[in-house]
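In this supplementary section we document a worked example of the pipeline. Step one takes a protein sequence of length 270 as its only input; no multiple sequence alignment statistics are reported here. Step two produces a three-dimensional model, which step three serialises into structure tokens for compact storage. The input and output of this example are shown verbatim.
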Amino acid sequence: MTATVGGRDRGLAALTVPLVVFLALPVVALVVRAVFGGGLERALASRVVLDALALSLATTAVSLGLTLALGTPLAYLLARRSFRGSSVVEAIVDLPIVLPPSVAGLALLLVLGRRGLLGGALDVVGISIPFTTLAVILAQTFVAAPFFIRSARAGIAAVDRDVEDAARVDGAAEHQVFRWVTAPLAGAALAAGAVMSWSRALGEFGATIMFAGNVEGRTQTLPLVVYSEFGGGDLDASIAAAAILVLAAFGVLVSVRVLRWGRALDIRGG
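The serialised model returned by step three reads:
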């Protein structure tokens, strides 16, 4: 039996190797070219790259804060309450995951642009969102928040309600039950969702360039630097900026698994 299973495993491994190599080789080639070609060192000394890196870190921090503040109550509602239209709400939450990012950016522009659904009202009070840093934050939040909400909902739903009820019997208010019981028990899912949401926001390109533009120092994040430098003919700078994003994303994924958050990454929310 052992020999048969081993043979099956070897057969499966032989089938999986081509895809693993296909997925890994371009990323490895990119990082190796950036590191050993000297482009990474030059990029880290470039004002354009450093400004874009600083902007990316600042905007993703704010977008993550918005996601946690607004997404956690929604995740709790979807996990703990049954209400009419809940399936529609879940579909709306999932939609940005499957939408092409450029479509997301266009949709934001149609709502918040000067001629958009809310643009006129915002313009009256002197608020213009498109092609500003705020537009970058909103674009990142739009595409990244669903990853946190899905993971948080699954984690909260997995918490034993008897434990929560015991805390209520002891006199804990609802916010205390969540803070001291639900959140710690669902902590792995909440943390994994937050990390994946931040990572998705860091790599956001399509919605950002459609809604916020590509203004150096104001809306030009690292993914936009990759695009701009490649279009401008500076391949090494483009590769170096891309390598920074790859290393950041890889670090996120490794940390998630090292900290044993892997099961919380199931965005199906099952």
